[in-house]
């Protein structure tokens, strides 16, 4: 039966880790005071008749703490790339210079920082909800084992405790990520 528990815990851990990875990806798209190439990950460029991720038509670099540069590989894509960056909703104003596009990051206003912190909180809450959903699935699986008399009540409680500990640890990691991200956002 311990093999079943190990399998269950491994599956739950994998699913909870997936929620954490999603949260990290969402956090990377939130703008902080510092330049980060991941900031432009959500940007899609109209290229060759389809929308392509920016990283498939250009190289993004960070030459300074408040500046991104986008080196477009195809000279004909510069205007489309500038438009995509400008229209991505991040409040950026790209400046083309040949095939190089400079993207200065303006200082965040206090209001914008608060909006970003709220967005980070929403992302974290979404991750917590996902983790709790995984926990619920695990608990239902344990109850199913108990109903089929594959495990006893005591063993079921032990398994449930281990699932709860896994859940608590993951939610603690989410909270730590949120605190760190909010600190980054609020840093002037």
In short:
The chain is α+β, with helices and mostly antiparallel strands and 188 residues long.
Note the main attributes of this structure.
single chain; 188 residues; alpha+beta; Topoisomerase I, Chain A, domain 4; Gyrase A, domain 2; 2 domains; four-stranded antiparallel beta sheet; two-stranded antiparallel sheet; 15% strand; elongated
Report on this model:
It holds the Pfam family RRF. It comes from Acidiphilium cryptum (strain JF-5). Belongs to the RRF family. Keywords: Cytoplasm, Protein biosynthesis. The chain is of the alpha+beta class. It folds into two domains: 2-29 and 109-186, Topoisomerase I, Chain A, domain 4, CATH 1.10.132.20; 37-104, Gyrase A, domain 2 (2-Layer Sandwich), CATH 3.30.1360.40. The protein is 57% helix and 15% strand. Strands 3-4-6-5 form a four-stranded antiparallel beta sheet, covered by helices on one side. A two-stranded antiparallel ribbon has the order 1-2. A hairpin with a 2-residue loop joins β1 and β2. α1 packs antiparallel against α3 and α1 (2-28) runs parallel beside α4. The protein is elongated and about 70 Å long. The protein starts with a helix and ends with a helix. The model has no long low-confidence stretch (mean pLDDT 88).
Order of helices and strands: HEEEEHEEHH
Q: What's the rounded overall pLDDT mean? A: 88
CATH classification class of the largest domain: Mainly Alpha
Spatial order of the strands forming the largest sheet = 3-4-6-5
Structural class of the helix and strand makeup?
alpha+beta
Query: Which CATH architecture of the largest domain is right?
Result: Orthogonal Bundle
Radius of gyration: 22 Å
Our measurement of the CA-to-CA distance between the termini, rounded to an integer number of angstroms, reads: 54 Å
The domain tally reads 2
Strand percent estimate:
15-25%
Could you give me the name of the CATH homologous superfamily of the largest domain? Ribosome-recycling factor
């Amino acid at each position: 039966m311990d093999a079943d528990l190990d399998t269950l815990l491994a599956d739950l851990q994998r699913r909870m880790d997936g929620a954490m990875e999603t949260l990290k990806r969402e956090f990377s798209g939130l703008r902080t005071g510092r330049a980060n190439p991941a900031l432009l990950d959500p940007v899609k460029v109209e290229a060759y008749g389809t929308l392509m991720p920016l990283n498939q038509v250009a190289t993004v670099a960070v030459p300074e703490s408040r500046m991104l540069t986008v080196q477009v590989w195809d000279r004909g894509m510069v205007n489309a790339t500038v438009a995509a960056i400008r229209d991505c909703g991040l409040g950026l104003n790209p400046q083309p210079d040949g095939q190089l596009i400079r993207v200065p990051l303006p200082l965040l206003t206090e209001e914008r920082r608060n909006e970003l912190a709220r967005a980070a909180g929403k992302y974290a809450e979404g991750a917590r909800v996902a983790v709790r959903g995984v926990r619920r699935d695990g608990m239902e699986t344990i109850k199913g084992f108990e109903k089929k008399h594959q495990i006893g009540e005591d063993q079921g409680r032990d398994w449930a405790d281990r699932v709860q500990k896994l859940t608590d640890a993951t939610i603690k990691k989410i909270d730590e990520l949120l605190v760190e991200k909010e600190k980054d956002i609020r840093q002037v």
